[in-house]
Amino acid sequence: DTTMRVEKGTTIDLEAKAIAESDDVLTVEGYASTFNNVDHGGDVVVPGAFKKSLSEIGLPMLLWQHKMDEPPIGSVIEAKEDSKGLWYKAEIPKDGGGDPLIKRIVGGLKRRAIKSNSIGYKTAKSERRKSDNARMLRELKLYEISLVNLPMNPEASVDRVKGLTGFQALPLV
Predict the structure, then answer these.
(1) Which of 38, 56, 60, 170 has the most CB atoms lying inside 10 A of its own CB?
(2) Whole-angstrom distance, CA of residue 5 vs CA of residue 134
(3) How far apart are CA 129 and CA 135, in angstroms?
């Protein structure tokens, strides 16, 4: 069997002011995962969990709803760990590259109808926490960040959607 099973989880809401646009692209910034909180799947991502993956595998893909069998909807151009979690910045072509789904995603982001992230990964190192049996994710192989409809981790978020339009974030309601 050549199919790779990728785990999904730690879905995070995008925060307001996380989207901006230029003539060609919508730029999205936010958290794909946060540290030290238990998500709805009973997992806790530990600080440092993404460092090896980011240095060895590189930047993850940007997908819609974890659809690994479809082309990416845009490009992750930066990703790093900070004190809150895994922060990322991505660009999505506003014209969708001719793909009507990507155009709908861009519209949904601008209207704040789409506001959650999730990650697709394989666990490299984990253990169970005795106090609550949560799975402590210590090292992850990160393959993708997805924009999704339903969040698993209520603390992760899109912080900015921006572009070159006066270098200001769009007013999102």
Answers:
(1) 60
(2) 21
(3) 6
**Residues 162/29, Cβ–Cβ less than 8 Å:** yes
Q: What is the pLDDT of residues 79-113, one digit of tens each?
A: 999 999 999 999 999 888 889 999 999 999 988 88
- DSSP bridge partners of 27: 20, 162
List the structure tokens of 5: 């099973």
Query: What digits encode the pLDDT tens for the residues 59-82?
Result: 999 999 999 999 999 999 999 999
**Residue-wise DSSP of the chain:** --PPP-EEEEEEEPPTTBEEE-SSEEEEEEEEEESS-B-TTSEEEPTTTTHHHHHHT-SPEEEETT-TTS--SEEEEEEEE-SSEEEEEEEEETTGGG-HHHHHHHHHHHTTS--EEEEEEEEEEEEE-TTT--EEEEEEEEEEEEEESS-SSTT--EEEEE-SSTT------
